[in-house]
Amino acid sequence: MDNFSLMAVSPIDGRYASKAAPLREYFSEFALIRNRVRVEIEYFIALCSIPLPQLSNFGEGTGKTREELFAALRDIYRNLTPEEASRVKEIEKVTNHDVKAVEYFIKEHFKALEITPWQEFVHFGLTSQDINNTSQPIMLKEALENEYMPRLQEILSILRADALEWKDVTMLARTHGQPATPTRMGKEIEVFIARLEEQIRQLSQLTYPAKFGGATGNMNAHKIAYPDIDWPSFADSFVSSLGLKRSCPTTQIEHYDNLAAIFDCMRRINTILIDLCRDVWTYISMEYFRQKVAKNEVGSSAMPHKVNPIDFENAEGNLGMADAVLTFLSMKLPVSRLQRDLTDSTVLRNVGVPFAHCLISFASLKKGLGKLILNREAIDADLHRNWAVVAEALQTILRRENYPNPYETLKNLTRTGAAIDEDTIARFVESLDVPEKVKEELRAVTPWNYTGF
Fold first, then answer.
1. What is the DSSP letter of 144?
2. Which residue out of 123, 176, 305, 384 is catalytically annotated?
3. Spatial CB neighbours of 387, under 8 Å, sequence gap ≥ 6
4. Fold: same for 21-124 and 131-207+256-375
5. Measured between alpha carbons, how far is 351 from 196 in angstroms, rounded to an integer?
């Protein structure tokens, strides 16, 4: 850990910096500047493609084709370095406005490319939020696709492999913490797989919203300058070219309802993973799972024997942190005073925080799942101690045979406080006044084969 990490206020940039590092490409100030430059330049190129009358001669006299100039403009954001982004911050010290600083930065490049006659069409007719509310969903979309989903799919792959490996492992279920009808370990893992897959499906159906409509959402400046152009259609097409969906109508800012839906879906995924962490943690405490031991690891500063389920605890804690921020984002962002206030701007700078906690938790969960060793002896011993769980099966068969008061009969047998073992059940079956064929059916029921589908 370097000195910067040691001095960091947040563990995201300190203790867990290596796990959160990939997100710097998406949620850092540098990433925001790069995407603002990207949107401004792509917008300028789109205006040239209409073309606006004053842009129909773009590039003439420069000795370069329009395509060459477009490539050079795109290289500004494609090849942007942190040092170049620092120039934007220097300009911002003068303008005291971050998006205007981006505009002036691009105009400096226009000068270098000798295309200043057309520079006033940079940021033409726009307001800051046209750039921000387009840049930020790009960052969100790319972070989800390139960082979040691949890591989540890694966890799913591990769970699928475990579910397959343990598909025939009968185990005692517990409802309300009490012994209940047997199940299979593989099936219990499949429950989490199905839940996660459904939320991933829902997340994949959501669109990434962008606001692009001028000062108060009506494209007033565009219309007054060029009333014959279908600007709403242009804006729809431009936003779509960036992989986003234009929200319309809006005020000065994106209304964030669809962004909130994305955050809510991420929160549900995290909540499912918290549920998984707690279940696995409990199975470890029940000795259904052992954990692979690293020779030099220490489980407790006082108790040498301990091997703590720290990976699942770490994952649970970070998932909870992510959920707290995601909940706040989804509740706060859709609320603004009249056409806009500035609260959304400062809040949106924190979108990377829950993503970081998600990545930290995914890494811990992946590590923890990779250390699990199934303990068949403990699982089977638990079943041996709890033959009472076949009572449901026996009373159901007796119901089918119209045996008098079958539920009450099994209740009286199993709730005496005495231990119910295999012999107890065998003696009970022999005492029943039912045909031998039914007794054979009852004798065949064990905690290991009473597992349903």
1. I
2. 176
3. 420, 421, 422, 424, 425, 447
4. no
5. 22
Query: Which of 354, 281, 269, 358 is closest to 313 using CA atoms?
Result: 281
Closest CA to 131 of 71, 251, 213: 213
Of 235, 262, 264, the residue nearest 249 (C-alpha): 235
Q: Which of 10, 56, 300, 384 is catalytic?
A: 300
Q: What is the CATH topology of the domain spanning 131-207+256-375?
A: Fumarase C; Chain A, domain 2 (1.20.200)
pLDDT in tens, the chain (453 residues): 566 778 888 888 888 989 999 999 999 999 999 999 999 999 999 999 999 999 999 999 999 999 999 999 999 999 999 999 999 999 999 999 999 999 999 999 999 999 999 999 999 999 999 999 999 999 999 999 999 999 999 999 999 999 999 999 999 999 999 999 999 999 999 999 999 999 999 999 999 999 999 999 999 999 999 999 999 999 999 999 999 999 999 999 999 999 999 999 999 999 999 999 999 999 999 999 999 876 666 554 444 454 688 999 999 999 999 999 999 999 999 999 999 898 998 999 999 999 999 999 999 999 999 999 999 999 999 999 999 999 999 999 999 999 999 889 888 888 877 788 999 999 999 999 999 999 999 999 999 999 999
Active site residue 300: yes
- Look up tokens 């890494």; give the residue: 363
* Residue boundaries of the structural domains of the chain: 21-124, 131-207+256-375, 386-443
- Asked about 176 being catalytic, the answer comes back as yes
- Nearest C-alpha neighbor of 447 from the set 371, 394, 368: 394
Determine the topology of domain 21-124 in CATH: Fumarase C; Chain B, domain 1 (1.10.275)
The CATH number that domain 386-443 falls under is 1.10.40.30
Q: Is the pTM of this model over 0.85?
A: yes
Q: Record the tokens describing residue 355, joined without a space.
A: 């993503």
